[in-house]
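We were asked to recover a plausible sequence for a given structure. The inputs and outputs are reproduced exactly as logged, with field labels preserved.

PROBLEM: sequence recovery
POSITIONS: 299
GIVEN STRUCTURE:
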């Protein structure tokens, strides 16, 4: 049925359906031995974010259940973060090399990739622990699925959505302003999280006006990719700076850090170009507009 509301179902019923679908897809992946470990980790973490976006959309109306479910989905994703980071570090290194392939000789940075490969291999050698984490995540998701019938909203229609939509959009606007004032790694990462939630909210609300909201979700996705790539570079940079001696000679390390900094500067410029358009509207104005779309959709 898809990650979106349906016109002839109530918001509460739609919320439960979407959440149940995301959990069941995750459980299928977790039990499928044919799914690669890296793919499994990626999909589960992504769906946990989508689940958190669902409950954030109705956060005020969901009441006390919000805090509990948000913690469960957050903690489930965190259990797999180390496995994700090891794979991402290698992918990020390869992306940097591809970007600057006409300017550098990969051979000079071979020691960096070898160290990243060794770190990932060490993690994969601990597969028993990772399998245990998969089992724990599955147990958490099964418990959450069993609680879904108890989810109750205190409001109906767009009133159930307005508060969560406005809060998440407003925080994305504030995080963008905060990054402009203080472009710290943590601030960019926080902005990215709010952008992701807004993207998922646009997807859920796509039926209100498909042409516009698909485009808006697409731009939010593009912005999220820029910020995600920037975050991955920041994480890799921190790893290298923390123990440079493990990655090779100082001259090569400094050159590699310079390449990453160039890449990050470009990504951050692109992020602001998209973000200032995406979050140009005041939160109240955006919610009022979406409310009118909702009314037309319900005719």
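RECOVERED SEQUENCE:
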């Amino acid at each position: 049925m898809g990650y979106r509301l349906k016109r002839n179902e109530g918001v509460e019923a739609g919320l439960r359906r979407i959440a149940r679908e995301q959990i069941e897809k995750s459980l299928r992946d977790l039990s499928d031995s044919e799914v690669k470990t890296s793919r499994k980790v990626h999909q589960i973490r992504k769906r946990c974010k989508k689940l958190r976006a669902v409950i954030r959309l109705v956060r005020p109306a969901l009441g006390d259940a919000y805090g509990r479910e948000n913690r469960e989905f957050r903690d489930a994703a965190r259990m797999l973060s180390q496995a994700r980071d090891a794979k991402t570090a290698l992918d990020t290194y390869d992306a940097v090399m591809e970007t600057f392939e006409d300017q550098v000789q990969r051979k000079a940075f071979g020691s960096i990739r070898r160290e990243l490969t060794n770190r990932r291999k060490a993690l994969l050698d601990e597969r028993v622990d990772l399998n245990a984490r998969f089992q724990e995540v599955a147990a958490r998701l099964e418990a959450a699925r069993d609680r879904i019938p108890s989810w109750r909203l205190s409001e109906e229609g767009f009133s159930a959505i307005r508060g969560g939509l406005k809060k998440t959009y407003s925080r994305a606007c504030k995080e963008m302003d905060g990054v402009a004032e203080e472009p710290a790694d943590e601030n960019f990462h926080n902005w990215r999280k709010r952008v992701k939630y807004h993207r998922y909210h646009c997807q859920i609300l796509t039926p209100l006006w498909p042409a516009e909201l698909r485009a808006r979700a697409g731009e939010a996705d593009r912005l999220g990719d820029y910020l995600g790539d920037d975050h991955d570079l920041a994480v890799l940079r921190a790893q290298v700076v923390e123990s440079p001696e493990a990655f090779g000679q100082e001259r090569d390390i400094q050159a590699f850090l310079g390449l990453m900094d160039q890449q990050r500067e470009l990504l951050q410029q692109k992020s602001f170009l998209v973000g200032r358009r995406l979050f140009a509207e005041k939160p109240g104005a955006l919610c009022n507009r979406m409310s009118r779309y909702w009314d037309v959709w319900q005719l």
